[in-house]
Amino acid sequence: xxxxxxxxxxxxxxxxxxxxxxxxxxxxxxxxxxxxxxxxxxxxxxxxxxxxxxxxxxxxxxxxxxxxxxxxxxxxxxxxxxxxxxxxxxxxxxxxxxxxxxxxxxxxxxxxxxxxxxxxxxxxxxx
Length: 127
What we know:
Layout: H1 9-21, E1 24-25, H2 26-33, H3 42-55, E2 58-61, E3 68-71, H4 75-90, H5 95-104, H6 110-126
Antiparallel strand pairs: 1-3, 2-3
Helix pairs in contact: 1-2, 2-3
């Protein structure tokens, strides 16, 4: 099976909703999307999910009248794919540069820094 294409920003938004909801109908995805995007119509959500199905980004269970959509890839796998692409394109292949940019740019909270530090400490103990 080939790797699906990289999702567009709108498709990524739908994937984030599906990861949070689990398998869902277009109606449920639309309802969840309205919190952040009150202008988004049901027809737009349905069409986007149909296009995403055609691209292989989501699966579709057609056994019931209302089709149920689910991400075709696990969230971790999708995030890893997108992160590798970002590291290559924006940070010249350097994961270190990405991490430093996140830490220095104020994108990491104090709680997240503590979690990262604990994770690094665990790694050091295992070496």
